[in-house]
Each structure stands twice: as structure tokens, then as C-alpha cells.
Design a protein that fits this description.
The protein is α+β, with helices and mostly antiparallel strands. The chain contains 3 helices and 7 strands, in the order E-E-H-H-E-E-E-E-E-H. Strands 1, 2, 3, 4, 5, 6 and 7 form a 7-stranded antiparallel sheet that branches. The chain is elongated and about 55 Å long. Bound molecules: zinc ion (ZN).
Length: 127
């Protein structure tokens, strides 16, 4: 689904951004969380014997972290387009990421940071 967000920066007027997001169902989130959890815990179990205790801890931490992040991914940000509030240059990204209510975007032209602000409750209402 396509919606709008704001690009805010201290000392500059906010600019509008167009974002493309994919809502994620509870089933999608749980299956991804279980997949990442199993992968991390499999690494932990394969590396449980010393001197590989560090790999076991890494598997435990990575599996838990990625499983939690996937479970919390209620929306995936597919892309965004907007203009830099500082210099007016076009900003865009096609990289997929977990949608956050606020995320930092750096302009390639002026190298200054601005904040992409998404009204997540409005997205929930539009679902
Ligand atoms: Zn800029």
C-alpha cells in the first residue's frame, strides 16, 4: 500500500514523502520469527561444545534478536521518495526494511540527516 510520511529536520520546513509499505500478518511474522529462531538455535546446538562456546552464544543471541525483530515487523517499508528538507534534492530508497515510526535518512547531496516520520496508527486504521 502507498501512503505519505513526513521528512522532518531541525531548522527546516517538513517535506512530504511517498512511502510504499507491505502490512505483515501475524502468521507471516510468527513464521519468520520461528525460522530465524530455529536457524540461530541450530547454530547454537551445533557449536555447543568447547572451544566453540563463543559461536554457541552468538547463535543464541542472533537467533533471539532476529526472531524478535521479525515478530515485531508489522510493516515492511518497500520504498520511499521525497525531497530533502535542507536542500530540496530528491531522496529515495528501494531497500526493504522494517518500518519504524521514526527513522533517519541522510541526503546524498548535502550529507545532512533528516527524519522520516510515519503515522503508524493511521496505517493501522487504513488496513
Ligand atoms: Zn539535502
Amino acid at each position: 500500500m502507498t501512503t505519505t510520511a513526513e521528512l522532518r529536520a531541525f531548522g527546516a520546513d517538513a517535506a512530504t514523502a511517498r512511502i510504499e509499505v507491505t502490512p505483515r500478518s501475524a502468521g507471516w511474522r510468527i513464521s519468520r520469527a520461528v525460522g530465524f529462531g530455529i536457524a540461530g538455535y541450530a547454530i547454537m546446538l551445533l557449536a555447543i561444545l568447547p572451544p566453540h562456546a563463543l559461536w554457541a552464544m552468538a547463535g543464541l543471541v542472533a537467533g533471539t534478536t532476529f526472531a524478535t525483530l521479525k515478530f515485531l515487523e508489522r510493516y515492511t517499508l518497500e520504498s520511499f521518495e521525497g525531497t530533502c528538507p535542507h536542500c530540496g534534492a530528491d531522496l529515495s530508497s528501494d531497500g526493504r526494511a522494517r518500518l519504524k515510526a521514526r527513522s533517519t535518512v541522510t541526503c546524498d547531496t548535502c550529507h545532512r540527516a533528516s527524519e522520516l516520520v510515519v503515522d503508524v496508527p493511521a496505517l493501522d486504521a487504513a488496513r
